[in-house]
Design goal:
heterodimer; A: alpha+beta; BirA Bifunctional Protein, domain 2; 2 domains; three-stranded antiparallel β-sheet; 20% strand; disordered N terminus; B: SH3 type barrels; OB fold (Dihydrolipoamide Acetyltransferase, E2P); 3 domains; six-stranded antiparallel β-sheet; five-stranded antiparallel β-sheet; 1 helix; 54% strand; elongated
Protein backbone atom coordinates (compact mmCIF):
# COMPACT_ATOMS: atom_id res chain seq x y z
CA UNK A 1 0.00 0.00 0.00
CA UNK A 2 2.84 2.38 0.81
CA UNK A 3 4.74 1.46 -2.38
CA UNK A 4 2.74 4.00 -4.37
CA UNK A 5 5.20 6.45 -5.97
CA UNK A 6 3.13 9.49 -5.20
CA UNK A 7 2.77 8.30 -1.62
CA UNK A 8 6.54 8.00 -1.30
CA UNK A 9 7.06 11.45 -2.74
CA UNK A 10 4.69 12.90 -0.23
CA UNK A 11 5.85 10.83 2.70
CA UNK A 12 7.46 13.66 4.67
CA UNK A 13 6.12 16.84 6.19
CA UNK A 14 7.83 20.15 5.66
CA UNK A 15 8.43 19.93 9.41
CA UNK A 16 8.50 16.47 11.00
CA UNK A 17 5.89 16.24 13.74
CA UNK A 18 7.00 12.94 15.26
CA UNK A 19 8.66 13.85 18.52
CA UNK A 20 6.58 15.20 21.36
CA UNK A 21 9.14 17.97 21.76
CA UNK A 22 7.85 19.42 18.45
CA UNK A 23 5.53 22.41 18.78
CA UNK A 24 1.94 21.24 19.15
CA UNK A 25 0.59 22.95 16.04
CA UNK A 26 2.28 20.13 14.12
CA UNK A 27 0.56 16.76 13.59
CA UNK A 28 1.65 13.78 15.69
CA UNK A 29 1.29 11.34 12.76
CA UNK A 30 3.68 11.34 9.82
CA UNK A 31 2.31 12.13 6.38
CA UNK A 32 3.10 8.51 5.44
CA UNK A 33 0.83 7.34 8.28
CA UNK A 34 -2.00 9.57 7.06
CA UNK A 35 -1.62 8.24 3.50
CA UNK A 36 -1.74 4.72 4.91
CA UNK A 37 -4.82 5.61 6.95
CA UNK A 38 -6.65 7.04 3.94
CA UNK A 39 -5.81 3.94 1.87
CA UNK A 40 -7.10 1.63 4.59
CA UNK A 41 -10.33 3.62 4.82
CA UNK A 42 -10.83 3.23 1.05
CA UNK A 43 -10.31 -0.52 1.32
CA UNK A 44 -12.69 -0.69 4.27
CA UNK A 45 -15.43 1.15 2.36
CA UNK A 46 -14.85 -1.12 -0.66
CA UNK A 47 -15.22 -4.17 1.59
CA UNK A 48 -18.69 -3.02 2.70
CA UNK A 49 -19.72 -1.69 -0.71
CA UNK A 50 -18.88 -5.04 -2.39
CA UNK A 51 -21.18 -6.77 0.09
CA UNK A 52 -24.15 -4.53 -0.65
CA UNK A 53 -24.00 -2.38 2.48
CA UNK A 54 -25.45 1.12 2.43
CA UNK A 55 -23.18 3.76 3.91
CA UNK A 56 -25.18 5.99 6.25
CA UNK A 57 -24.50 9.24 8.05
CA UNK A 58 -26.43 9.87 11.27
CA UNK A 59 -26.22 12.79 13.75
CA UNK A 60 -23.20 13.08 16.02
CA UNK A 61 -25.23 15.29 18.37
CA UNK A 62 -28.41 13.64 19.63
CA UNK A 63 -31.18 13.93 22.21
CA UNK A 64 -30.52 10.28 23.15
CA UNK A 65 -27.49 8.68 24.75
CA UNK A 66 -26.72 5.09 25.64
CA UNK A 67 -27.38 4.26 29.29
CA UNK A 68 -24.12 2.55 30.24
CA UNK A 69 -22.53 2.21 33.66
CA UNK A 70 -19.00 3.02 32.51
CA UNK A 71 -19.46 5.39 29.57
CA UNK A 72 -19.25 9.14 30.07
CA UNK A 73 -20.70 11.22 27.21
CA UNK A 74 -20.06 14.90 26.55
CA UNK A 75 -23.23 16.94 26.57
CA UNK A 76 -24.24 20.39 25.45
CA UNK A 77 -27.38 22.52 25.20
CA UNK A 78 -29.45 23.60 22.23
CA UNK A 79 -31.04 27.03 22.84
CA UNK A 80 -34.76 26.92 22.19
CA UNK A 81 -35.67 30.59 22.22
CA UNK A 82 -36.44 33.15 24.93
CA UNK A 83 -38.42 31.88 27.91
CA UNK A 84 -38.01 28.25 26.89
CA UNK A 85 -35.58 25.83 28.52
CA UNK A 86 -32.69 24.68 26.32
CA UNK A 87 -32.65 21.07 25.17
CA UNK A 88 -29.93 18.77 26.52
CA UNK A 89 -28.04 17.08 23.66
CA UNK A 90 -25.33 14.42 23.76
CA UNK A 91 -22.28 13.83 21.61
CA UNK A 92 -22.60 10.20 20.59
CA UNK A 93 -20.42 7.52 22.22
CA UNK A 94 -21.36 5.33 19.22
CA UNK A 95 -23.89 5.68 16.36
CA UNK A 96 -25.81 2.66 17.67
CA UNK A 97 -29.22 4.23 18.36
CA UNK A 98 -29.80 6.01 15.03
CA UNK A 99 -28.45 3.04 13.05
CA UNK A 100 -30.90 0.68 14.75
CA UNK A 101 -33.68 3.15 14.03
CA UNK A 102 -32.72 2.84 10.35
CA UNK A 103 -32.96 -0.96 10.67
CA UNK A 104 -36.41 -0.61 12.21
CA UNK A 105 -37.36 1.60 9.25
CA UNK A 106 -36.41 -1.16 6.79
CA UNK A 107 -32.68 -0.82 6.06
CA UNK A 108 -31.08 -4.28 5.79
CA UNK A 109 -27.30 -3.83 5.75
CA UNK A 110 -25.79 -0.50 6.77
CA UNK A 111 -22.41 0.80 7.84
CA UNK A 112 -21.01 4.07 9.04
CA UNK A 113 -17.61 5.63 9.66
CA UNK A 114 -18.34 8.04 12.48
CA UNK A 115 -16.53 10.25 14.93
CA UNK A 116 -17.54 9.33 18.49
CA UNK A 117 -16.72 10.88 21.85
CA UNK A 118 -15.99 9.48 25.27
CA UNK A 119 -15.09 11.75 28.13
CA UNK A 120 -12.31 10.60 30.49
CA UNK A 121 -10.81 8.08 28.06
CA UNK A 122 -7.28 9.17 27.27
CA UNK A 123 -4.08 7.17 27.00
CA UNK A 124 -1.81 5.54 24.42
CA UNK A 125 -4.77 3.49 23.13
CA UNK A 126 -7.56 5.94 23.92
CA UNK A 127 -8.48 9.37 22.61
CA UNK A 128 -11.63 11.16 23.80
CA UNK A 129 -12.60 11.65 20.13
CA UNK A 130 -12.08 8.68 17.85
CA UNK A 131 -13.32 7.09 14.65
CA UNK A 132 -15.67 4.15 14.88
CA UNK A 133 -16.74 1.85 12.08
CA UNK A 134 -20.13 0.43 12.93
CA UNK A 135 -22.30 -1.93 10.89
CA UNK A 136 -25.58 -3.81 11.14
CA UNK A 137 -27.00 -6.61 9.01
CA UNK A 138 -30.57 -7.76 9.49
CA UNK A 139 -31.12 -11.51 9.57
CA UNK A 140 -27.63 -12.35 10.90
CA UNK A 141 -27.15 -14.46 14.02
CA UNK A 142 -23.98 -14.62 16.13
CA UNK A 143 -22.32 -17.14 13.77
CA UNK A 144 -22.74 -14.97 10.66
CA UNK A 145 -21.83 -11.87 12.65
CA UNK A 146 -18.55 -13.37 13.88
CA UNK A 147 -17.73 -14.76 10.42
CA UNK A 148 -18.25 -11.33 8.85
CA UNK A 149 -16.01 -9.71 11.49
CA UNK A 150 -13.32 -12.34 10.90
CA UNK A 151 -13.50 -11.76 7.10
CA UNK A 152 -13.16 -8.02 7.59
CA UNK A 153 -10.24 -8.46 9.99
CA UNK A 154 -8.49 -10.77 7.53
CA UNK A 155 -9.01 -8.33 4.65
CA UNK A 156 -7.75 -5.32 6.62
CA UNK A 157 -4.90 -6.79 8.65
CA UNK A 158 -3.74 -9.71 6.51
CA UNK A 159 -3.12 -11.86 9.56
CA UNK A 160 -5.45 -14.70 8.72
CA UNK A 161 -9.00 -15.39 9.91
CA UNK A 162 -9.80 -14.88 13.58
CA UNK A 163 -9.74 -17.83 15.95
CA UNK A 164 -12.67 -18.25 18.33
CA UNK A 165 -12.69 -18.77 22.06
CA UNK A 166 -15.59 -18.45 24.48
CA UNK A 167 -15.24 -15.97 27.34
CA UNK A 168 -15.58 -18.94 29.67
CA UNK A 169 -12.70 -20.89 28.07
CA UNK A 170 -10.41 -17.86 27.83
CA UNK A 171 -11.02 -16.91 31.46
CA UNK A 172 -10.62 -20.48 32.71
CA UNK A 173 -7.39 -20.91 30.73
CA UNK A 174 -5.64 -17.84 32.12
CA UNK A 175 -7.31 -17.31 35.51
CA UNK A 176 -8.18 -20.92 36.38
CA UNK A 177 -11.74 -20.10 37.46
CA UNK A 178 -15.13 -20.54 35.77
CA UNK A 179 -16.32 -16.94 35.28
CA UNK A 180 -19.97 -17.96 34.91
CA UNK A 181 -20.38 -20.05 38.05
CA UNK A 182 -17.65 -19.29 40.57
CA UNK A 183 -18.74 -17.29 43.66
CA UNK A 184 -17.66 -13.65 43.63
CA UNK A 185 -15.58 -14.22 46.79
CA UNK A 186 -13.40 -16.64 44.80
CA UNK A 187 -12.71 -13.90 42.23
CA UNK A 188 -11.73 -11.51 45.01
CA UNK A 189 -9.54 -14.18 46.63
CA UNK A 190 -7.81 -14.85 43.30
CA UNK A 191 -6.97 -11.16 42.89
CA UNK A 192 -5.50 -11.17 46.39
CA UNK A 193 -3.57 -14.42 45.82
CA UNK A 194 -2.06 -13.02 42.63
CA UNK A 195 -1.19 -9.82 44.56
CA UNK A 196 -2.85 -7.73 41.87
CA UNK A 197 -3.04 -3.98 42.38
CA UNK A 198 -6.78 -3.80 43.03
CA UNK A 199 -8.19 -0.26 42.93
CA UNK A 200 -9.03 0.94 46.45
CA UNK A 201 -12.73 1.06 47.32
CA UNK A 202 -13.78 -1.86 45.09
CA UNK A 203 -16.99 -3.35 46.50
CA UNK A 204 -16.56 -7.03 47.39
CA UNK A 205 -19.89 -7.98 45.85
CA UNK A 206 -19.45 -6.08 42.57
CA UNK A 207 -19.00 -9.20 40.45
CA UNK A 208 -18.51 -7.56 37.06
CA UNK A 209 -15.80 -5.27 38.35
CA UNK A 210 -13.81 -8.28 39.59
CA UNK A 211 -14.38 -10.16 36.33
CA UNK A 212 -13.26 -7.12 34.31
CA UNK A 213 -10.26 -6.64 36.54
CA UNK A 214 -9.07 -10.25 36.21
CA UNK A 215 -9.76 -10.15 32.47
CA UNK A 216 -7.64 -7.01 32.13
CA UNK A 217 -4.81 -8.27 34.35
CA UNK A 218 -4.59 -11.96 33.43
CA UNK A 219 -6.38 -12.62 30.14
CA UNK A 220 -6.37 -9.66 27.80
CA UNK A 221 -2.63 -9.56 27.06
CA UNK A 222 -2.83 -13.17 25.75
CA UNK A 223 -5.79 -12.54 23.44
CA UNK A 224 -5.14 -12.24 19.71
CA UNK A 225 -1.54 -13.50 19.76
CA UNK A 226 -0.26 -14.58 17.35
CA UNK A 227 -3.54 -14.70 15.45
CA UNK A 228 -6.58 -12.46 15.91
CA UNK A 229 -9.22 -13.97 18.20
CA UNK A 230 -12.94 -13.44 18.72
CA UNK A 231 -14.08 -13.93 22.32
CA UNK A 232 -17.80 -14.82 22.44
CA UNK A 233 -20.62 -15.61 24.89
CA UNK A 234 -20.07 -13.08 27.68
CA UNK A 235 -21.46 -13.30 31.22
CA UNK A 236 -25.17 -12.38 31.10
CA UNK A 237 -24.48 -9.48 33.48
CA UNK A 238 -22.30 -7.93 30.75
CA UNK A 239 -24.90 -8.14 27.97
CA UNK A 240 -25.12 -4.35 27.47
CA UNK A 241 -27.41 -4.23 24.40
CA UNK A 242 -27.00 -7.90 23.39
CA UNK A 243 -29.51 -10.68 23.76
CA UNK A 244 -29.13 -13.16 26.59
CA UNK A 245 -29.36 -16.80 25.52
CA UNK A 246 -31.14 -19.01 28.05
CA UNK A 247 -28.33 -21.60 28.40
CA UNK A 248 -27.44 -22.99 31.80
CA UNK A 249 -25.88 -20.71 32.94
CA UNK A 250 -27.25 -18.01 30.59
CA UNK A 251 -24.77 -16.09 28.41
CA UNK A 252 -24.88 -12.79 26.53
CA UNK A 253 -24.67 -13.13 22.74
CA UNK A 254 -21.87 -10.60 22.64
CA UNK A 255 -18.41 -10.96 21.06
CA UNK A 256 -15.19 -9.01 20.92
CA UNK A 257 -12.25 -9.09 18.51
CA UNK A 258 -8.75 -8.88 19.99
CA UNK A 259 -5.49 -8.45 18.10
CA UNK A 260 -2.13 -8.43 19.95
CA UNK A 261 -3.94 -8.06 23.27
CA UNK A 262 -5.79 -4.97 22.02
CA UNK A 263 -9.58 -4.82 21.93
CA UNK A 264 -10.56 -3.90 18.40
CA UNK A 265 -14.30 -4.54 18.00
CA UNK A 266 -17.42 -5.38 19.97
CA UNK A 267 -20.52 -7.07 18.53
CA UNK A 268 -24.00 -7.91 19.72
CA UNK A 269 -26.75 -10.19 18.58
CA UNK A 270 -29.00 -7.23 19.13
CA UNK A 271 -31.53 -7.07 21.91
CA UNK A 272 -35.00 -6.59 20.37
CA UNK A 273 -37.17 -6.57 23.48
CA UNK A 274 -38.04 -2.99 24.49
CA UNK A 275 -39.31 -4.02 27.92
CA UNK A 276 -36.02 -5.76 28.65
CA UNK A 277 -34.06 -2.65 27.58
CA UNK A 278 -36.19 -0.52 29.94
CA UNK A 279 -35.37 -2.92 32.78
CA UNK A 280 -31.64 -2.81 31.96
CA UNK A 281 -31.67 1.01 31.76
CA UNK A 282 -33.26 1.19 35.21
CA UNK A 283 -30.73 -1.16 36.74
CA UNK A 284 -27.77 0.61 35.03
CA UNK A 285 -28.97 3.97 36.39
CA UNK A 286 -29.22 2.47 39.87
CA UNK A 287 -25.59 1.32 39.53
CA UNK A 288 -24.54 4.71 38.17
CA UNK A 289 -26.06 6.44 41.18
CA UNK A 290 -24.36 3.96 43.53
CA UNK A 291 -21.04 4.73 41.77
CA UNK A 292 -21.64 8.44 42.34
CA UNK A 293 -22.48 9.25 38.70
CA UNK A 294 -25.53 11.04 37.35
CA UNK A 295 -28.41 8.93 36.02
CA UNK A 296 -29.01 9.16 32.26
CA UNK A 297 -32.33 9.60 30.43
CA UNK A 298 -33.91 6.16 30.15
CA UNK A 299 -36.39 6.93 27.38
CA UNK A 300 -35.15 7.21 23.79
CA UNK A 301 -36.29 7.05 20.19
CA UNK A 302 -34.50 3.69 20.04
CA UNK A 303 -37.03 2.33 22.54
CA UNK A 304 -39.86 3.67 20.34
CA UNK A 305 -38.29 1.96 17.32
CA UNK A 306 -37.90 -1.30 19.25
CA UNK A 307 -41.54 -1.16 20.27
CA UNK A 308 -42.50 -0.65 16.63
CA UNK A 309 -40.33 -3.67 15.73
CA UNK A 310 -36.60 -4.09 15.20
CA UNK A 311 -35.55 -6.94 12.87
CA UNK A 312 -33.19 -9.60 14.23
CA UNK A 313 -29.66 -8.36 13.49
CA UNK A 314 -26.05 -8.37 14.48
CA UNK A 315 -24.31 -5.05 15.03
CA UNK A 316 -20.57 -4.53 15.42
CA UNK A 317 -18.48 -1.47 16.34
CA UNK A 318 -14.79 -1.38 15.47
CA UNK A 319 -12.19 1.18 16.53
CA UNK A 320 -10.81 2.43 13.23
CA UNK A 321 -7.81 4.28 14.72
CA UNK A 322 -6.67 1.11 16.49
CA UNK A 323 -7.12 -0.87 13.27
CA UNK A 324 -4.89 1.61 11.42
CA UNK A 325 -2.39 1.55 14.28
CA UNK A 326 -2.12 -2.26 14.17
CA UNK A 327 -1.99 -2.43 10.36
CA UNK A 328 0.68 0.29 10.28
CA UNK A 329 2.75 -1.42 12.99
CA UNK A 330 2.41 1.54 15.35
CA UNK A 331 2.00 1.24 19.11
CA UNK A 332 0.21 4.47 20.01
CA UNK A 333 -2.90 6.05 18.50
CA UNK A 334 -1.03 9.35 18.25
CA UNK A 335 1.08 7.80 15.48
CA UNK A 336 -2.00 7.48 13.25
CA UNK A 337 -4.03 10.53 14.35
CA UNK A 338 -3.21 13.89 12.81
CA UNK A 339 -4.10 15.76 15.98
CA UNK A 340 -4.77 13.70 19.12
CA UNK A 341 -6.31 15.39 22.16
CA UNK A 342 -3.11 17.14 23.27
CA UNK A 343 -2.94 18.86 19.86
CA UNK A 344 -6.66 19.12 19.06
CA UNK B 1 -3.15 20.52 50.40
CA UNK B 2 -3.51 20.23 46.63
CA UNK B 3 -4.61 16.94 45.11
CA UNK B 4 -4.56 15.36 41.69
CA UNK B 5 -7.55 13.73 40.00
CA UNK B 6 -6.93 10.64 37.82
CA UNK B 7 -7.38 12.80 34.71
CA UNK B 8 -4.27 14.75 35.80
CA UNK B 9 -2.16 11.63 36.43
CA UNK B 10 1.04 11.63 34.41
CA UNK B 11 4.66 10.63 34.54
CA UNK B 12 6.68 12.75 36.94
CA UNK B 13 3.83 13.62 39.34
CA UNK B 14 4.78 13.63 43.03
CA UNK B 15 2.01 12.26 45.24
CA UNK B 16 1.44 11.04 48.79
CA UNK B 17 0.30 7.51 49.61
CA UNK B 18 -0.08 6.41 53.23
CA UNK B 19 1.99 9.42 54.29
CA UNK B 20 4.97 8.65 52.04
CA UNK B 21 6.01 10.68 49.00
CA UNK B 22 6.00 8.88 45.65
CA UNK B 23 7.13 9.77 42.15
CA UNK B 24 4.84 8.54 39.34
CA UNK B 25 7.06 6.61 36.92
CA UNK B 26 4.32 5.38 34.56
CA UNK B 27 0.59 5.83 34.20
CA UNK B 28 -1.53 3.83 31.81
CA UNK B 29 -5.25 4.12 31.09
CA UNK B 30 -7.12 0.82 30.63
CA UNK B 31 -10.79 -0.12 30.33
CA UNK B 32 -10.94 -3.91 30.23
CA UNK B 33 -14.05 -5.52 28.81
CA UNK B 34 -15.94 -2.22 28.50
CA UNK B 35 -15.80 -2.10 32.28
CA UNK B 36 -14.59 0.46 34.70
CA UNK B 37 -11.97 2.96 33.56
CA UNK B 38 -8.73 2.29 35.45
CA UNK B 39 -5.40 4.04 35.76
CA UNK B 40 -2.56 1.57 36.25
CA UNK B 41 0.40 3.35 37.74
CA UNK B 42 3.94 2.52 38.76
CA UNK B 43 5.41 4.70 41.48
CA UNK B 44 8.68 4.98 43.35
CA UNK B 45 8.73 5.61 47.06
CA UNK B 46 11.06 8.58 47.42
CA UNK B 47 12.02 7.68 50.99
CA UNK B 48 12.60 3.93 50.67
CA UNK B 49 13.33 3.84 46.93
CA UNK B 50 10.95 0.89 46.49
CA UNK B 51 8.67 0.52 43.45
CA UNK B 52 4.92 0.18 43.88
CA UNK B 53 2.26 -0.85 41.31
CA UNK B 54 -1.16 0.58 42.05
CA UNK B 55 -4.43 0.94 40.19
CA UNK B 56 -7.00 3.71 40.61
CA UNK B 57 -10.52 4.12 39.33
CA UNK B 58 -11.35 7.04 37.10
CA UNK B 59 -12.37 9.91 39.39
CA UNK B 60 -10.14 8.91 42.31
CA UNK B 61 -7.62 11.42 43.53
CA UNK B 62 -4.28 11.51 45.31
CA UNK B 63 -2.83 14.14 47.57
CA UNK B 64 0.07 16.03 46.07
CA UNK B 65 3.40 15.56 47.84
CA UNK B 66 5.29 18.70 48.79
CA UNK B 67 8.63 17.49 47.49
CA UNK B 68 11.45 19.75 46.38
CA UNK B 69 15.15 19.43 45.73
CA UNK B 70 17.56 22.03 47.06
CA UNK B 71 21.25 22.54 46.45
CA UNK B 72 23.14 22.43 49.74
CA UNK B 73 26.75 22.47 50.81
CA UNK B 74 28.16 19.68 52.97
CA UNK B 75 29.56 21.24 56.14
CA UNK B 76 30.67 18.51 58.53
CA UNK B 77 29.88 15.23 60.19
CA UNK B 78 29.04 14.92 63.86
CA UNK B 79 28.86 11.27 64.95
CA UNK B 80 25.94 9.81 62.96
CA UNK B 81 24.70 13.14 61.65
CA UNK B 82 25.76 14.88 58.45
CA UNK B 83 25.18 18.62 58.36
CA UNK B 84 24.42 20.51 55.13
CA UNK B 85 23.55 24.14 54.45
CA UNK B 86 21.45 25.77 51.76
CA UNK B 87 23.85 28.53 50.65
CA UNK B 88 20.98 30.76 49.53
CA UNK B 89 18.87 30.65 52.68
CA UNK B 90 21.57 29.56 55.17
CA UNK B 91 19.10 26.94 56.35
CA UNK B 92 20.89 23.93 57.81
CA UNK B 93 19.78 20.35 57.31
CA UNK B 94 20.86 17.46 59.52
CA UNK B 95 20.78 14.10 57.80
CA UNK B 96 21.07 10.82 59.64
CA UNK B 97 23.66 8.39 58.29
CA UNK B 98 20.86 6.09 57.09
CA UNK B 99 19.65 8.82 54.71
CA UNK B 100 23.16 9.56 53.49
CA UNK B 101 23.73 5.83 53.01
CA UNK B 102 26.78 5.00 50.86
CA UNK B 103 27.18 8.58 49.73
CA UNK B 104 29.36 9.31 52.80
CA UNK B 105 32.22 7.81 50.78
CA UNK B 106 32.26 10.83 48.48
CA UNK B 107 31.49 13.69 50.88
CA UNK B 108 34.16 16.36 51.19
CA UNK B 109 33.62 19.50 53.16
CA UNK B 110 32.31 22.31 50.98
CA UNK B 111 30.90 19.96 48.31
CA UNK B 112 27.57 20.99 46.74
CA UNK B 113 24.97 18.22 46.96
CA UNK B 114 21.29 17.88 46.16
CA UNK B 115 18.93 17.34 49.09
CA UNK B 116 15.37 16.16 48.62
CA UNK B 117 12.85 17.64 51.03
CA UNK B 118 9.38 16.29 51.81
CA UNK B 119 7.27 18.72 53.86
CA UNK B 120 10.56 20.59 54.38
CA UNK B 121 12.19 17.54 56.00
CA UNK B 122 15.20 15.96 54.27
CA UNK B 123 14.41 12.50 52.86
CA UNK B 124 17.44 11.93 50.67
CA UNK B 125 20.74 13.30 49.44
CA UNK B 126 22.56 12.94 46.13
CA UNK B 127 26.24 13.87 45.71
CA UNK B 128 27.53 15.15 42.35
CA UNK B 129 27.83 12.37 39.72
CA UNK B 130 31.63 12.77 39.66
CA UNK B 131 33.90 13.66 42.56
CA UNK B 132 37.67 14.03 42.84
CA UNK B 133 39.27 12.38 45.89
CA UNK B 134 42.85 12.22 47.14
CA UNK B 135 44.44 8.82 47.66
CA UNK B 136 45.74 8.59 51.24
CA UNK B 137 47.08 5.08 51.11
CA UNK B 138 47.56 2.21 48.67
CA UNK B 139 50.17 -0.44 47.87
CA UNK B 140 52.97 0.97 45.67
CA UNK B 141 52.18 1.08 41.96
CA UNK B 142 53.89 -1.32 39.56
CA UNK B 143 56.14 0.88 37.39
CA UNK B 144 55.14 1.13 33.78
CA UNK B 145 51.99 -0.87 34.34
CA UNK B 146 49.21 1.16 32.77
CA UNK B 147 46.76 -1.72 32.50
CA UNK B 148 43.40 -0.87 34.02
CA UNK B 149 42.12 -4.41 34.33
CA UNK B 150 44.26 -5.15 37.40
CA UNK B 151 42.91 -3.29 40.41
CA UNK B 152 43.91 -2.72 44.01
CA UNK B 153 42.10 -1.07 46.91
CA UNK B 154 43.01 2.55 47.64
CA UNK B 155 42.00 4.45 50.74
CA UNK B 156 40.87 7.99 49.94
CA UNK B 157 40.63 11.16 52.03
CA UNK B 158 37.02 10.49 53.07
CA UNK B 159 38.02 7.16 54.63
CA UNK B 160 36.39 5.12 51.88
CA UNK B 161 38.11 2.42 49.86
CA UNK B 162 37.94 2.63 46.06
CA UNK B 163 39.15 -0.03 43.63
CA UNK B 164 41.83 1.59 41.47
CA UNK B 165 44.17 0.48 38.66
CA UNK B 166 47.56 -0.68 39.92
CA UNK B 167 49.42 2.43 38.63
CA UNK B 168 47.66 4.75 41.11
CA UNK B 169 49.94 6.09 43.88
CA UNK B 170 49.60 7.73 47.25
CA UNK B 171 48.89 11.44 46.79
CA UNK B 172 47.18 10.99 43.40
CA UNK B 173 43.83 12.64 42.80
CA UNK B 174 41.27 10.27 41.29
CA UNK B 175 37.89 10.93 39.72
CA UNK B 176 35.11 8.59 40.93
CA UNK B 177 31.59 8.02 39.61
CA UNK B 178 29.35 8.28 42.67
CA UNK B 179 26.49 6.36 40.98
CA UNK B 180 28.58 3.23 40.52
CA UNK B 181 31.37 3.79 43.06
CA UNK B 182 33.88 3.14 40.28
CA UNK B 183 37.22 4.78 39.51
CA UNK B 184 37.11 6.77 36.25
CA UNK B 185 40.54 8.37 35.81
CA UNK B 186 43.37 10.22 37.46
CA UNK B 187 42.60 13.92 37.91
CA UNK B 188 45.00 16.84 37.75
CA UNK B 189 43.54 18.97 40.55
Amino acid sequence: MSGDAEGLQRSVWKCPGEASSQPDYLPSATLAALWFRAELLKRLRAFFDERGFLEVDTPILSADTVVDRHLAAFSTELPCGPGRPPRRLWLQTSPEFPMKRLLAAGAEAIYQVAHVFRRDEIGPLHNPEFTMVEWYRAGDGPEQGMQFLSDLCEAMLDRGPAERVSYREAFARHVGLDPLTVPTEALVARCRALRLAVPPGSAEDDRDTWLDFLLGECVQAHLGRPRPVIVYDYPASQAMLARVRADDPPVAERFELYVDGIELANGYHELLDAAELRRRNRSVNAQRRADGNAALPEGSRLLDAMEAGLPAAVGVALGFDRLVMLAFGATRLAEVLAFPMGRA
Amino acid sequence: MASYNTSEFRKGLKVQIDGDPYLMLECNFVKPGKGQALYKCRLRNLVRNTVLDRTWKSGDSLEAADVEEVEAQYLYRQADTFVFMDTNTYEQYELDKDLVDDAWKYLKEGMMCSIMLFNNQPIGMTPPNHVVLKVEYCEPGAKGNTATNVTKPAEVETGATIECPSFVNIGDMIRVDTRTGEYIERARE
